[in-house]
Amino acid sequence: MHILVVNGPNLNLLGRREPEIYGTQTLADIDNELTKTFPDVRFTFFQSNHEGAIIDTLQSAMDRTYNGVVLNPGAFTHYSYAVRDAVAALPVPVIEVHLSNIHLRAESAAGEEFRRLSVIAPVCKAQVSGFGPAGYVLAVRMLLNATTETQ
Amino acid sequence: MHILVVNGPNLNLLGRREPEIYGTQTLADIDNELTKTFPDVRFTFFQSNHEGAIIDTLQSAMDRTYNGVVLNPGAFTHYSYAVRDAVAALPVPVIEVHLSNIHLRAESAAGEEFRRLSVIAPVCKAQVSGFGPAGYVLAVRMLLNATTETQ
Amino acid sequence: MHILVVNGPNLNLLGRREPEIYGTQTLADIDNELTKTFPDVRFTFFQSNHEGAIIDTLQSAMDRTYNGVVLNPGAFTHYSYAVRDAVAALPVPVIEVHLSNIHLRAESAAGEEFRRLSVIAPVCKAQVSGFGPAGYVLAVRMLLNATTETQ
Amino acid sequence: MHILVVNGPNLNLLGRREPEIYGTQTLADIDNELTKTFPDVRFTFFQSNHEGAIIDTLQSAMDRTYNGVVLNPGAFTHYSYAVRDAVAALPVPVIEVHLSNIHLRAESAAGEEFRRLSVIAPVCKAQVSGFGPAGYVLAVRMLLNATTETQ
Amino acid sequence: MHILVVNGPNLNLLGRREPEIYGTQTLADIDNELTKTFPDVRFTFFQSNHEGAIIDTLQSAMDRTYNGVVLNPGAFTHYSYAVRDAVAALPVPVIEVHLSNIHLRAESAAGEEFRRLSVIAPVCKAQVSGFGPAGYVLAVRMLLNATTETQ
Amino acid sequence: MHILVVNGPNLNLLGRREPEIYGTQTLADIDNELTKTFPDVRFTFFQSNHEGAIIDTLQSAMDRTYNGVVLNPGAFTHYSYAVRDAVAALPVPVIEVHLSNIHLRAESAAGEEFRRLSVIAPVCKAQVSGFGPAGYVLAVRMLLNATTETQ
Amino acid sequence: MHILVVNGPNLNLLGRREPEIYGTQTLADIDNELTKTFPDVRFTFFQSNHEGAIIDTLQSAMDRTYNGVVLNPGAFTHYSYAVRDAVAALPVPVIEVHLSNIHLRAESAAGEEFRRLSVIAPVCKAQVSGFGPAGYVLAVRMLLNATTETQ
Amino acid sequence: MHILVVNGPNLNLLGRREPEIYGTQTLADIDNELTKTFPDVRFTFFQSNHEGAIIDTLQSAMDRTYNGVVLNPGAFTHYSYAVRDAVAALPVPVIEVHLSNIHLRAESAAGEEFRRLSVIAPVCKAQVSGFGPAGYVLAVRMLLNATTETQ
Amino acid sequence: MHILVVNGPNLNLLGRREPEIYGTQTLADIDNELTKTFPDVRFTFFQSNHEGAIIDTLQSAMDRTYNGVVLNPGAFTHYSYAVRDAVAALPVPVIEVHLSNIHLRAESAAGEEFRRLSVIAPVCKAQVSGFGPAGYVLAVRMLLNATTETQ
Amino acid sequence: MHILVVNGPNLNLLGRREPEIYGTQTLADIDNELTKTFPDVRFTFFQSNHEGAIIDTLQSAMDRTYNGVVLNPGAFTHYSYAVRDAVAALPVPVIEVHLSNIHLRAESAAGEEFRRLSVIAPVCKAQVSGFGPAGYVLAVRMLLNATTETQ
Amino acid sequence: MHILVVNGPNLNLLGRREPEIYGTQTLADIDNELTKTFPDVRFTFFQSNHEGAIIDTLQSAMDRTYNGVVLNPGAFTHYSYAVRDAVAALPVPVIEVHLSNIHLRAESAAGEEFRRLSVIAPVCKAQVSGFGPAGYVLAVRMLLNATTETQ
Amino acid sequence: MHILVVNGPNLNLLGRREPEIYGTQTLADIDNELTKTFPDVRFTFFQSNHEGAIIDTLQSAMDRTYNGVVLNPGAFTHYSYAVRDAVAALPVPVIEVHLSNIHLRAESAAGEEFRRLSVIAPVCKAQVSGFGPAGYVLAVRMLLNATTETQ
């Protein structure tokens, strides 16, 4: 069992940036929690601020060396049709994860309407939003089930 | 620990209606799975095709007799500001669950654009979409964590 | 042969409300005309101002105890995705009927733009609009043909 | 009793074009069915791919030589304000007929959003949509009733 | 003199829900204030979370047993064309009341754009918005004047 | 107690312009009615067709020489962000008054869609619309209450 | 001096169609009035319900055999980019004429929003709208001036 | 015979501002031309950059001291609902004049989309656009005809 | 090998109309170039300003007497759903050709936004745009390949 | 060197109105700072709540008695096409200044979407936004540079 | 003769990804076909998933070391204004190539509306879409012609 | 004092690309001018066509090693929510600089509507637009003031 966990732009700042929205856990904390929670799963963790690097990495899952992908696209969620196409090409299931409730933020005081739309969600298998770091755990659990089911 | 599980219109048809989208499990199957998976949790299950009945039921959680709510609003997701207001008034966390990937359906062959928008999501704590019946399990797990955290 | 005739909110006022638009016939008059015109058909007539009751009733046609449904959704036409989902789930044909020409009303002096769109029409088999009470007769005739064809 | 039946562009291909949507009956079949079903009615049938020819023909009904018009405007439905003006000028009732459910097609896999709107419907007396060739029969029946009523 | 006072969904929570917006008075307090302020008026008070029940109740005013209606549609304000149709059918004046300034809320931090539009207002005689519980008193006073005038 | 009553463009025509919408009372009649109804209140009345003059006058209430403002912005309602800013800057409550039901007019035969939106309402304390001249009386009564409450 | 006067679809009905909007003068009356008012001008009059025939006729003015064109495009005003292109190609000035005030009709009781936009106006030299038959006289007078100026 | 000619903001710059659009004639030139062309008509000329002054002036025509109004609203064309209301209140016909083709400018290189819409046109009797200074002459001629007709 | 080349409205003006956009070659020049470049192909050339004539001609390709169609719809590109339906009905491939870059023109100084959208492109096999007359040659070459491939 | 500094509606309230947005400096403070910072420049300062007065003043710069204009249009920024036209007519450079970041305010908690758009900016030479009173200093410095350059 | 061929994100997957849309040829196959078809042309082939790398490469054509560019921007087509700016800066012609008919895909079952718009097309010389790999050959042929013409 | 100056895609072409819009100064010229104008400030200059590289660089300012950032995002201005998030995370002020007046370009002949909106501006402290290279100098001066103020 091998799962690819991909994080998009500015998620390397987790724990340091707007903690009232994103919490105080760092990305390393999340990676550790996943490793600890699923000792039988092999994880490859990847974060980049470069759209191209994220696409390159997603493409590395083309040959089923991975059983599934957990993807938090960060701000690419809202405009990167190139990441979308890379996800659509994958033969393994991809779960989209957002730490905060993006629907809430679209309507909240910051008025960030653009956060309502995910151009990537339609080609993912499922999404979780608003669960904080626990969202990654749920996504992996889901992938484990999906893999078991189809065996 | 007491959790309210509310299902909206037409979800009583689960297992009989468009199984290629919603699968073959019935709502009773899902209820049973929850009961079995969380033996220490007391569940109250409610389904109705009546918007008013759903609001009445949600209001019954005003006095913290419940620790949290799992809500699949069905088609009310897309227009019931009344259900939204009932959710917004609750002092306990509400998790929105959708069986299918509503983003995919909004773009898919059926062209059901209206399924893209949830008027209820902005007042929920979190959402899961596309996990099928497992989404209910994830939502309950989330509520257990949330309750533990804040104790 | 058994046909379900469902009328939505405020149609119980027929004959009393805005007669210049809806005419002077009451809903009972229409029911009688159907019974008289089709003596060999068994009719079940239902009217409600409650969206949930209409969905409950439509669901009663899930098991083919009815050969078809004639539905005038009233104002639910324009926003009830819950009624739409109930229609979509039915294994028997549903004909949407509107007494007045809803396209005309959308543009007419009252400026009721919202009347132009039916969120239910796309999941019906056919629509008639603007025929007044005769629209119900045409819809039943259509269902008789459809039933005969597929036998 | 004299009725004008007007069919717009590409309806001469009926029975040959996309039979899964439009069926296998030709326009001549429909004409014959009308003649046979209403032996006491005199029909004038007209089909053209030319917008101007359709307007010329509709104008021929200005002097009440016809008792009513059955109009399937084909694709002109969606943009010909000139046909609309010709219909609006007529002193006899016009019924708009569509073979397929245009609301369904607007949302279906073909994504033909433009099929949702009829610019002609607001000036017609009534519409039928989705009844296939039987729609013409229903429209004529309607015109017979209307004529009788106002006598 | 007999006035019907109808309150829509979640208004039974008044005094308990978001008091910074809606104040601490309960609906019973408002009813009492009306009774005390207008000792010569007979009031019928009705609240429901059920759209159908509200329509049923409004229809009970069809026969002029009431001299006027005060209506706070709650969230139905923003989408219930069925309540609108019921109001439009009434022969007595209806005054729309909102406790808070809905225009302010549409623009405020909560970003609840949907609160800007009332689909019911165009068929009411008048509206008051932002006066808190006093809005009900103003509405009744208005109805008394209107009744006197037309006598 | 001192209240400023400000009326915008064309309201000086009251009683002479479109009486079927605005009634036959003149602005002087309304002023007199206010003076008579509230003998203990000192009123300053102001009407102008000049946006700048209205802003100058509103600014004169910056120093709390007034206890509140009653404002009928006339057509400025729909576009004057400058009047809006002047209102927003005032430390005393402002009540927006419209003689006719602006929601009705937006949908009515005149098709004056622009009348639906008030750019000033979001910075007022409350609005009354559709009460005719009585709206001014209600607004003053409201200001008296507000002033009493906060003492 | 030679001027081409082109009238679009349904203008041959002038005097017979909706006289409350278009008046009782026929197109022949207008032609006569032009001939009588401008005895020194040679006129070619053309009316057709066929878009192609109108384009053919407009193209006949490519070689400056005409000094200018008066064009009432009828309903083609609102969608015929083909007529627009024909106008744009002409080396002589074209004046667009509308009998009724199209801006008024766009907002009036008929709610014909589509009448607000002319896709042809941007390539014409000038427009007159709402002057009735006199609009043609004004347009010709304008062309005479323009021709004189540039000599 | 007495006609009021009203010009809006920046039209006092005529002849000095962007002559390639507006020509080299000044407003005084136009006034002189009108006086010379119509020796039997008494003219009152008014120009202002102040919206309020224009409304005051238009209102001076309330008592039929004028037989008609020629109005070039300048940039107020596109947003002044206050000027619109003043025009709507007048008992005499108002003709809207624009020197340049506003439809062309909406699409031209300057991309001034806002110039396409006139909020005042729907309440005027007629419009001329694109005729340059001659548009004023045409408008006066039109008013003379209208006055003659109704006598 | 037999190919139908259809050109829409105003393309007969090629070489005479706006040569800075469309070049100086006439349609006859293009026809000759095709005949010379593909000596083994039999061509039928058709141009018309009549939408109906273009549909009639396209329908003549229903019986595979042609191997493919090259279509430059001219301005019909932007609104003729009737031509679209005719193309959709053809059993042979259709290539859409535009002389100029329609995307550039949509944004360019002329501001012809409407040129951005082709309502016909979605039912064609392929498009070339901006190649000038060479676009026709490319389209024919493409059809030859397609025919060869499927043999 | 002579510079005109024009401030629009409500800017006379500077230092008194919403100091958390606009700071505590008054307009007089800003004027003094400009005079002190640029001792060699002659300044004319003008503020008005009257759109017409601002246009009159801007027009006074038509004859190059000024070398440039610094303009803070206040709320006129968002709708005054009349001020825009006055700016467009000026032969000297105009710099638009906003004290606060209008882009931020458009998205912030106040939800003042309308503040995003400046209808005047496209005809100015440049803008500064968000610099507070220092924006005026920057604008003057810019004008000095521009003047030097072009000498 | 030297031509740069640039392919955007995910085009390296060609032949492996969604072959029913994109066919079974790889990008290397296309490169080989170009080299073989045009033996006298020197090609530089570049593919990247990195927007920045594509811009860097396009900028390398600033000094006319290339005679032209063939560009398939992949998903960057729909949002990369940065690639657009790089194309706009080039002194040599750029041809945009799409393998599939993007207009068809925008309307087809996948509902990928976003594929309709190319933000890059307006700054290219020409586009081909829907020709599959042959589109590259056509684009190169076009560039050869263009180069020959301008010599 | 240490300031980071970041320039986005294609700004390395400055002085070579469209000099009529961007002038003839190169980016190096601007850097030199900054260094010369502010001898006491330490500058770090960065330009990249890679969105990811720009985000990486902006993140290097997380630890206050810089006192402020001057950012010209180039085309990223219009769509890069990822750059926006990076800016939002910074604890030091960021000033957005555009060489040309982006508001003018949105409306100008090139019709580049997309240039009107900056998705980054709402999270910057201030913007300057249209000042050419001098904009960078103004931005730095602003940062110096801000730093001094808060000490």
Which characteristics define this entry?
Rossmann fold; homododecamer; 151 residues
Task: Please provide a written account of the structure.
- The structure is a homododecamer of 151-residue chains.
- The first copy, chain A, is of the alpha/beta class and 151 residues long.
- Chain A has a single domain, classed as Dehydroquinase, class II (Rossmann fold).
- Helices cover 36% and strands 17% of the residues of chain A.
- Chain A has helices spanning 19-22, 27-37, 51-59, 81-89, 102-107, 134-149, and strands spanning 2-7, 42-47, 68-72, 94-98, 126-129.
- A 5-stranded parallel β-sheet of chain A has the order 2-1-3-4-5, with helices on both faces.
- In chain A, helix 3 (51-59) runs parallel beside helix 4.
- The two termini of chain A are 12 Å apart.
- The model of chain A has no long low-confidence stretch (mean pLDDT 88).
- Strand 5 of chain C pairs antiparallel with strand 5 of chain D, so a sheet runs across the interface.
